[in-house]
Write a structure and sequence with these properties.
seven-stranded parallel sheet; alpha/beta; six-stranded parallel sheet
Length: 381
């Protein structure tokens, strides 16, 4: 920025929830933490939808506001964005509004930068609760048209937005997720703690993510059954994540699985535990049907763990040439991926070097810089 002007930037921060950061929350956190500190001359107005944790007020140039009501339901989404946010934007009169969670205020005249993480609702509408589906179908096309600039988290998502909504490519920049520093290959935990605690010292495959139909857990469980049926493997399967909407069938399938004794559901765990789970896994098995990005793939690679992933949507972008690819619709193909993973040496210098080179593409500092450039462009600075 050469004009010497200062910007007033309003931000939707409703996903900054203490001890509850997930995909969009982490994306918001990592980018804003950097933006705010890199640009102390600018003023940032953070819009929360409930009492906030002071840790999210990253610097003196952040002005936090709590706007009623807590927006966790389509009716309240509408209320929050169309009334509370639009009123706050009128009062503050910022140069630009940044919304990292895919929603914006249609009633506001403030130029808006909108981050879109995926268009899963277009591809798998049956995986959404009916009211949510109606909301997305009704509002998303309007949000896309209203946004002055769009940030997509992958080239795949950018192309998807162009195809679905006929948007000019110039309006969309690609802003990748980065990988948080906690995910690294350096083991400080001593010898195989997870394997001793959870699997009795046996090797294991790992899945990380919410238990949701789009994540294809049913075919993963079927593949694991086929893999174990050959009788030669002592591997376990660990499924880490929360049970999401429509997950009751998944829980039943786990309970009735012939290899139930070797399947573990630790639920939500801390980042520190997560790192250990990644580092000690034979491979991450992530046969998701559709991803706008696929954070677990990046996290696994940062821990030098091999990802076995779907050859679909954005996943080949994130896995690059250092992952094994499978057909997510074919349990047999997933089994072959598992079998190949058992032959993999995670310490092979050629592979770890290629992983480290690939990971350079995914950098939070670069992503924050791109967001700032987009904000400057929108505000005319």
């Amino acid at each position: 920025k050469t004009s010497g002007k200062v910007m007033k930037i309003a931000v939707n921060t409703r996903f900054l929830l203490s001890n509850k950061l997930e995909g969009i929350g982490w994306h918001t956190y990592e980018i804003l933490r950097r933006l705010v500190r890199a640009h102390p001359q600018d003023s940032f107005y953070f819009f929360f939808d409930r009492p906030y944790d002071p840790q999210f007020v990253f610097a003196p140039n952040v002005h936090p506001l709590v706007l009623f009501p807590p927006a966790r339901h389509p009716v309240l989404f509408y209320w929050w964005f169309e009334w509370s946010v639009s009123r706050a934007l009128r009062q503050i009169n910022p140069d630009v509004f940044y919304s990292p969670d895919g929603f914006l205020s249609l009633r506001s005249q403030t130029p808006t930068l909108l981050t879109i993480h995926d268009l899963a609702y277009r591809h798998f509408p049956e995986h959404l609760p009916p009211l949510m589906r109606t909301y997305y179908n009704r509002m998303m096309p309007q949000y896309v048209m209203k946004a002055g600039q769009i940030a997509a988290v992958s080239e795949y998502t950018k192309e998807d937005i162009i195809q679905q909504f006929n948007v000019s490519p110039e309006r969309i920049s690609v802003v990748y997720n980065g990988v948080r520093s906690v995910f690294s290959p350096d083991s400080t935990t001593g010898s195989r703690s997870i394997r001793h605690q959870v699997t009795g010292g046996n090797p294991y495959f790992l899945y990380v993510g919410s238990m949701h139909p789009r994540k294809n857990i049913n075919r993963l469980l079927e593949a694991f059954r086929l893999f174990k049926a050959s009788g030669q493997w002592n591997h376990h399967l660990i499924l880490v994540g929360r049970m999401a909407w429509k997950s009751t069938g998944i829980r039943q399938e786990v309970e009735q699985h012939p290899d139930r004794a070797t399947i573990h559901l630790p639920g939500n765990i801390t980042d520190e535990q997560m790192v250990d789970y990644y580092r000690e896994a034979q491979a991450l098995i992530y046969p998701s049907l559709f991803e706008g990005f696929g954070m677990p793939v990046l996290e696994a690679l940062a821990c030098h763990t091999l990802p076995v992933i779907s050859q679909s949507s954005s996943l080949p972008e994130v896995g690059g040439e250092v992952a094994i690819y499978v057909d997510p619709l074919d349990p047999g193909s997933i089994v072959q991926g598992m079998q190949r993973a058992t032959q993999h040496d995670p310490h092979h210098p050629a592979w770890t070097h290629r992983v480290d080179q690939h990971l350079k593409k995914f950098n939070w500092n670069r992503s924050a810089d791109q967001i700032y450039r987009d904000l400057c462009k929108l505000s005319g600075y």
